[in-house]
Specification:
Blueprint: E1 2-6, H1 12-21, E2 45-52, E3 56-63, H2 70-83, E4 87-91
Parallel strand pairs: 1-3, 1-4
Antiparallel strand pairs: 2-3
Length: 101
């Protein structure tokens, strides 16, 4: 389990798409520049099972960054963590003011 969490528009869905689009090994993670088909705002939690050439079998959990989804995130995360360990990647948009981070 890889949990992508953070503020809205910080890049969570973009990283998820890069991981998905590089899973076959045709593109290198560090050399990937264009990311297409990224939804502007994620609704809820979007789980995606990925069989990646280098990262192996993972499940990406792309969590919406809008505050109205936070309470549902807690319940889902509690259930996820009871079954399997997870890696959390916290995203912060450094261009935002300190008050919103």
């Amino acid at each position: 389990n890889v949990i992508l969490l953070g503020n809205s528009t910080a890049g969570k869905s973009t990283l998820a798409q890069v991981i998905i689009q590089t899973s076959s090994g045709r593109h290198l993670l560090g050399r990937f520049r264009y990311v297409g088909s990224v939804e502007l705002h994620t609704a809820g939690i979007v789980p995606t099972r990925v069989e990646h050439q280098w990262l192996k079998n993972i499940i990406l959990h792309d969590l919406a960054g809008q505050s109205e989804y936070y309470s549902s995130h807690i319940a889902v995360l509690e259930n996820l963590l009871q079954e399997y360990p997870a890696v959390f990647i916290n995203f912060v948009n450094l261009c935002e003011s300190k008050a919103s981070v």
